[in-house]
Write a structure and sequence with these properties.
Elements (H helix, E strand, L loop, with lengths): L2 H14 L2 H23 L4 H17 L1 H14 L3 E5 L2 H14 L4 E4 L3 H6 L1 H7 L3 E4 L2 H8 L16 H11 L8 H18 L2 E4 L3 E3 L4 E6 L3 H7 L3 E7 L3 E2 L2 H16 L6 E5 L4 E2 L7 E2 L6 E7 L3 H6 L14 H4 L4 H4 L10 H12 L1 H10 L5 H5 L6 H14 L5 H13 L11
Parallel strand pairs: 1-12, 2-3, 2-4, 4-7, 5-8, 7-12
Antiparallel strand pairs: 5-6, 6-9, 10-11
Helix pairs in contact: 2-12, 3-12, 16-17, 16-19, 17-19
């Protein structure tokens, strides 16, 4: 019962002794907080925005089936294809078939935690398809064969010096420890990939059901390339990302941005509504001009329907993936998100992992959380993650997935009156 805990404890100990990680997370924490605080000072209506977004999310979750149906109708009316995947296997199978029917040799991707959840890259690579992550952080960790350490900043566990060493080793060239030069090298290496790609795969920050519109927030410009240059665009998203209208989606983006990156607005907000089209010739509608001719929306359930029907954990579906909870978490600042995750990181990640990958995968994450409450305090949706962690631990106890050490503490208190198993002295 505790063998998984022992190996996990060893991994945590290793991260606690990781000097590169310490330096990287210390730099990140200082920079993030300064940026976020400066942004919020310039956003006088922030409290109104975040409260309104919580109302939108709560309403959307209550009407999720209706919104999924509306999204399907909207996408198909635009000439796009829609697929609702019940689980990860369904989603991956559909996406693989689209790639195969397009004779795809090269796929470019923008950052997407849902595709990470699905282990999509691994499946496509096994089929002989080259998959290239184009978000800079994602590309860096792809070069290192690592998983993301943060939902917004995938490579935040690495210092500039370590990234330079990675580039030098994997690209067979001497690379200086200079952020601007590292970015320029990435731009040069990735630019032709966009042009040659057969399929572009993206996630979505928000989806507007009324129009079938995908909203993507970014700063680098890679998502625009990935969703515009290839002839086929596949958007992969969880069903919880749907809201009723574009106006609602824009409001969500106003709350995500300062909490995610410390900006009032991102460099780019892309609104994608179906495949590219023109009616310039005699008003005859033709699909596929300078953008994709094919648009596929893959909405993923994979446990989300169970989550929203569970009164103890429904609130987790309100998450807008801004990452503020991770950025303020004292545990995250010590060990990062590679060890403290399965696919999703931190306390909220434990809840999500329970529904997407099961209790066993969630157990180590859940028992690492201190339930200190800082995540709830900073969360723009005011999600009570500590409460849900305690509920999750109850489920883990019933499933026999509690570390033996914790059970021993409980037994010691019952028998000896203290957690250490120290017998009382005879009077």
């Amino acid at each position: 019962m505790s063998s998984w805990f022992e190996s996990y404890k060893d991994e945590v100990t290793k991260e606690l002794e990781n000097e590169v990680l310490k330096v990287a997370l210390e730099r990140f924490s200082r920079t993030y907080w300064n940026a976020r605080n400066n942004a919020l000072r310039k956003l006088p209506y922030y409290n109104y925005y975040r409260k309104r977004v919580r109302e939108i999310k709560a309403w959307s979750i209550e009407h999720l089936d209706e919104l999924v149906k509306m999204t399907k109708e909207s996408v198909e009316s635009l000439g796009g294809s829609f697929y609702l995947a019940n689980n990860a296997g369904d989603a991956v199978e559909y996406i693989s078939k689209v790639c195969e029917s397009s004779n795809a040799k090269l796929v470019v991707k923008s950052k997407s935690m849902v595709t990470e959840e699905l282990s999509l890259n691994e499946v496509l690579i096994e089929k002989g398809i080259e998959v290239v992550e184009t978000d800079l952080g994602e590309w860096i960790i792809q070069l290192r064969s690592e998983k993301p350490s943060h939902i917004i900043y995938p490579a935040i566990h690495l210092t500039t010096e370590e990234i330079a060493r990675t580039f030098s080793k994997t690209l067979n060239m001497e690379v200086p420890s200079n952020a601007s030069k590292l970015v320029r090298i990435a731009r040069e290496k990735l630019r032709q990939k966009f042009i040659n790609a057969d399929v572009g795969i993206s996630g979505a920050n928000v989806i507007a059901a009324e129009t079938g519109t995908v909203l993507i927030i970014e700063n680098e410009g890679n998502a625009r390339f990935a969703t515009n240059a290839p002839p086929v665009h596949i958007c992969v998203s969880g069903i919880e990302k749907i809201v009723p209208t574009v106006e609602d989606a824009i409001l969500v983006s106003r709350v995500i941005t300062p909490n995610a990156t410390g900006q009032l607005m991102p460099v780019y907000i892309s609104l994608i509504t179906g495949p590219s089209r023109t009616a310039d010739i005699e008003l005859k509608l033709t699909l596929g001009v300078h953008g994709p001719k094919e648009f596929h929306m893959v909405l993923v359930d994979n446990g989300r329907s169970k989550m929203v029907k569970d009164p103890d954990f429904k609130e987790a579906s309100y998450c807008i993936r801004c990452g503020a909870c991770l950025s303020d978490c004292p545990v995250y600042r010590e060990i990062g998100g590679i060890v403290w995750s399965y696919k999703y990181m931190g306390g909220i990640g434990a809840i999500w992992t329970t529904f997407t990958h099961g209790l066993e995968k969630a157990a180590p994450i859940a028992f690492t959380c201190t339930t200190c409450g800082r995540c709830k305090a900073i969360c723009p949706m005011e999600i009570d993650t500590p409460r849900m962690i305690l509920k999750l631990r109850e489920k883990l106890l019933k499933a026999g997935l509690t570390p033996k050490q914790l059970l021993t503490i409980s037994e010691n208190i019952k028998v000896f009156g203290n957690p250490f198993g120290i017998a009382k002295k005879a009077e």
